[in-house]
Amino acid sequence: xxxxxxxxxxxxxxxxxxxxxxxxxxxxxxxxxxxxxxxxxxxxxxxxxxxxxxxxxxxxxxxxxxxxxxxxxxxxxxxxxxxxxxxxxxxxxxxxxxxxxxxxxxxxxxxxxxxxxxxxxxxxxxxxxxxxxxxxxxxxxxxxxxxxxxxxxxxxxxxxxxxxxxxxxxxxxxxxxxxxxxxxxxxxxxxxxxxxxxxxxxxxxxxxxxxxxxxxxxxxxxxxxxxxxxxxxxxxxxxxxxxxxxxxxxxxxxxxxxxxxxxxxxxxxxxxxxxxxxxxxxxxxxxxxxxxxxxxxxxxxxxxxxxxxxxxxxxxxxxxxxxxxxxxxxxxxxxxxxxxxxxxxxxxxxxxxxxxxxxxxxxxxxxxxxxxxxxxxxxxxxxxxxxxxxxxxxxxxxxxxxxxxxxxxxxxxxxxxxxxxxxxxxxxxxxxxxxxxxxxxxxxxxxxxxxxxxxxxxxxxxxxxxxxxxxxxxxxxx
Length: 478
Prior knowledge:
By secondary structure, this protein is of the alpha/beta class. It has helices spanning 14-25, 41-47, 79-87, 94-102, 117-131, 205-217, 232-238, 289-304, 309-317, 345-358, 381-388, 413-422, 433-440, 461-471; strands at residues 5-9, 29-33, 52-53, 67-70, 91-92, 107-112, 141-148, 153-156, 162-167, 171-173, 176-179, 188-191, 224-228, 244-249, 256-264, 267-274, 277-284, 327-332, 335-340, 364-368, 393-397, 427-430, 449-453. The protein has 14 helices and 23 strands. It starts with a strand and ends in a 7-residue tail after the last helix. Residues 324-456 form the Mur ligase C-terminal domain.
């Protein structure tokens, strides 16, 4: 293999940072650039000693790289992209390079859906990892859109056949507006949920469903799709599959049936039935019905690919979640601060439901930064109100980069707060993280649970709020 100097524009995205590590692992020299870096991906890149240049600049492309990977967040006008085009430096996308460099002669297993992709892919990877202790040929390679805590990383490349991929329906690059997951040609796949999302690139729900239908249409006849059973949208997307279809969920008629689901604190337990017959009793050290669904999907796909049942049971019992998915960031003066990568009203609803289960009887404060391209728009304003109403108190930040969203399409946090107050739920809006920390800290009491909901850096509120609570007079917080 000829080694190359490969430069990634937009390297701090979760998939791009993972690709950077994978390229380095197989011997390439890797550099990258981004407008801003924040954990956990900035930490991963630093640990790998991959140079990350900030901000974007032509000088970052000196010496001239052999190949440039253009992230899907990079648009015409970016100074580095314009230089690449002017100088005719070869370029590609993350998804295309992944297909060309890593997927030949592999078994491609893709986890797709509007919600649950990262957690489910992490569970699947850990199942395969545990199974590899007795069956070395099952040792997985993987790319996950988050940092899997069991591995302490978001990627791994091995010489074995299984390659587990989080399949993102977002577009691929400025020159390829198709979904990234269409580059992955799955041998088998999971489809968790299908809802309207990514309002910046999909005009409506039918367009989203078309993308997932195309993914299902790529699965060969010998393959399988494991699909959630309680979604008409999912049913429509798998309706014309050429491969075997296995539904999973709470319906007794489903191929994989979840029975006797119970939650005790942060632990979930259920009996899983396969075609009406007992398969296993599963225990997961995570709260929330949605996580039981995620684990069931991972178990189902793994079992169908020949992974031993005992490895599935052991792996789920020892699963350690994903960074920024219901992650406890701090416990200060009896106040618990949770970080969750919220991007959609449904995800927010399930996060708050899980926290209600885990922290019964404690006041739940939700702090939301409308940052994803979906949440920054008003298309889901009422759904957002309904989701946030599960909290006892709500604090909203201003819309991230609101100027980039037309006023007629933009979410107005003041409207969300007013609707919540009409339901007798205290709700306030502050412009940024600093204002939130200053205003909220004196209101907090020991026993409170704070859920910080954002898919970005959020002005480093994850550090600022615990520090402010730690410095507050103890008598105020009791």
